[in-house]
From TrEMBL:
The gene is ANGPT4. Residues 27-52, 73-105 are annotated as: Disordered. It comes from Amphiprion ocellaris. The keyword Cell membrane does not apply. This is Fibrinogen C-terminal domain-containing protein. Residues 37-46 have a biased composition (Gly residues).
């Protein structure tokens, strides 16, 4: 700092000096042109200098030489005569005036030039100085602050480096992350693509299935409509068939009515015929030949008429002739058979009306008919015989001396007396007026059952009793443990179905 101060002091000195020198020179020139100015004003003008003194200063490598002005000659300056002619050279004594003869103009110009170059030199020096000073100043300041700056710079650099490394690290990480993200993204994109592909496939399949389903539905609806058509056709056919059936039924009914009418006519005709026969017989009686052939009231009459062969005969009963089977062998013959079974060819599950009128083949399995039986046995006192045969070849019979069958209004009740026979010690038929029952007329003595339905056939069911010869015909091997078979309890037990039966009547006094 001391160096700096010294330098500044030198600079100020130099400046002061330079200024004075320039002022001096200017004053001399002016004095040459206008005396009043130069002589009057400048007490300190150098025009009066007689000698030069040099002062040299050594500063480092550089040395500065100063030309100092002499002050003693300057006191007597400013006399009017001097100033009248040439001002400066006469009145005031200057170094330049003395060194060279006063040459007006040219010399002044030279002087001025010299001054100017000096000044230029000085200026250059000054510049140099300034530069130097500035340089040194800068160096000082730089030296002072360089450490801090270095430190700061280092710190900054360090920080910067750190930042840079951090940044680089982050960038690297970022790149990795970016790559990962890109990979993920691409993978996701691939998956998406695949998904969309499979979705497309699925959609296609779905469309296909949908179309198939719709086709199936169409088919189904077509089938349904067909089925409906068929159904309606069938319904129509059924309706037609029902109508046809009704028509046929009515036809059958008409035919049945016609048959009945025919039967009636036949009956009338036959009665007419028998009447004619009777008339003929009477006529023949009167003429002397008496064959009362066709007026038999039963098989006993037939037998008495000389027919001793079992078979089909016609008797006269209830104003009409009736075909009957006559047993002419059993126990003396003359039996009118009203029930016969031996091979199951005829169904005995019949209605009240059928049991009343009779059914079956008279020369085979049959039921003669309750009405005929009633009419026949009402004519006199009759006996009953029951012939039985089992599947083992055994035969047995039951006989009743008295047999009575009431009318239909009294439900064809059966009264029996005088039991005898080999088919059990006791009667398997109830003897005290049991009513006849069929599936459509329940006259039995069972309060809570219908024996005709349970045991089948028409019979004089008690509750339900020990016999039913009109049950179901079971063939051999199937005839055991059958409650609804052909049963005669006191012969073969309650569940044995017999092989053949026959029931017949004959007048008690035969
Ligand atoms: C100016 O300086 C140069 C050297 O630096 C010197 O040669 C020259 O004579 C000087 N001129 C004057 C007028 O002092
Ligand atoms: C430079 O910084 C360090 C710590 O960073 C410190 O210890 C040292 O004093 C500092 N120097 C200067 C000249 O500031
Ligand atoms: C993407 O990930 C797969 C499996 O994870 C790997 O095989 C593949 O090299 C990765 N690709 C890139 C570019 O990282
Ligand atoms: C025979 O039948 C007719 C009707 O076909 C009847 O008019 C006539 O009286 C009957 N004769 C006798 C004898 O029953
Ligand atoms: C048979 O005819 C006579 C008269 O022709 C009649 O009185 C009698 O009631 C008839 N018998 C039956 C069972 O129809
Ligand atoms: C049962 O007997 C009758 C008369 O003899 C006969 O016509 C019929 O064919 C026989 N039926 C059976 C199934 O044996």
């Amino acid at each position: 700092m001391k160096g700096l101060n010294l330098t500044w002091g030198l600079l100020v000195l130099l400046l002061l000096w330079t200024f004075s020198a320039v002022t001096d020179a200017a004053g001399a020139e002016r004095g040459g042109r206008s005396q009043r100015r130069g002589g009057g004003g400048g007490g300190s003008s150098g025009g009066s200098e007689k000698r030069r003194r040099f002062h040299r200063i050594q500063h480092g490598q550089c040395s500065y030489t100063f030309i100092l002005p002499e002050l003693d000659g300057c006191q007597g300056g400013g006399s009017p005569p001097q100033t009248e002619q040439y001002g400066g050279p006469r009145g005031g004594t200057s170094v330049v005036q003395r060194d060279s003869p006063p040459v007006d103009g040219e010399w002044s110009a030279q002087k001025l030039q010299h001054l100017e170059s000096t000044m230029e030199n000085n200026t250059q020096w000054l510049h140099k100085l300034e530069n130097f000073i500035q340089r040194s100043m800068r160096r000082d300041v730089a030296n002072i602050q360089s450490h801090v700056v270095h430190n700061q710079t280092a710190t900054m650099l360090e920080i910067g480096t750190n930042l840079l490394t951090h940044t680089a690290e982050q960038t690297r990480k970022l790149n990795v992350v970016e790559a990962k993200v890109l990979n993920h993204t691409s993978r996701i994109e691939i998956q998406l693509l695949e998904n969309s592909l499979s979705t497309n496939k699925l959609e296609k399949e779905l469309l296909l299935q949908t179309s198939e389903i719709s086709q199936l539905r169409d088919k189904n609806s077509r089938l349904e409509s067909k089925v409906q058509m068929l159904e309606s056709q069938q319904r129509g056919e059924l309706e037609d068939m029902r109508v046809e059936k009704n028509r046929l039924q009515s036809v059958v009914r008409n035919q049945m009515a016609a048959i009945e009418a025919l039967e009636r006519q036949l009956r009338v005709a036959s009665s007419n015929n028998s009447a004619l026969q009777r008339q003929q017989a009477q006529l023949m009686d009167t003429t002397g030949s008496p064959p009362r052939t066709q007026m038999w009231r039963d098989c006993a009459d037939v037998y008495k008429a000389g027919h001793s062969v079992s078979g089909l005969y016609h008797i006269y009963m209830g104003n009409r002739t009736e075909p009957v089977y006559c047993d002419m062998e059993t126990s003396g013959g003359g039996w009118t058979v009203f029930q016969q079974r031996f091979n199951g060819s005829v169904d005995f599950q019949r209605s009240w009306r059928e049991y009343k009128l009779g059914f079956g083949d008279v020369s085979g399995e049959h039921w003669l008919g309750n009405e005929v039986l009633h009419l026949m046995t009402s004519q006199a006192q009759y006996s009953l015989r029951v012939e039985l045969k089992d599947w083992e070849g055994n035969t047995a019979h039951s006989q009743y001396d008295r047999f009575t069958l009431t009318s239909e209004r009294q439900q064809y009740r059966l009264y029996l007396r005088g039991y005898s026979g080999t088919a059990g010690r006791q009667s398997s038929l109830t003897t005290h007026g049991t009513a006849f029952s069929t599936r459509d007329q329940d006259n039995d003595n069972c309060d809570h059952c219908k024996c005709a339905l349970m045991l089948t056939g028409g019979w004089w069911f008690d509750a339900c009793g020990f016999s039913n010869l009109n049950g179901i015909y079971y063939t051999v091997g199937h005839n055991i443990r059958k409650l609804n078979g052909i049963k005669w309890h006191h012969f073969r037990g309650p569940s044995y179905s017999l092989r053949s039966t026959s029931m017949m009547v004959r007048p008690y006094d035969f």
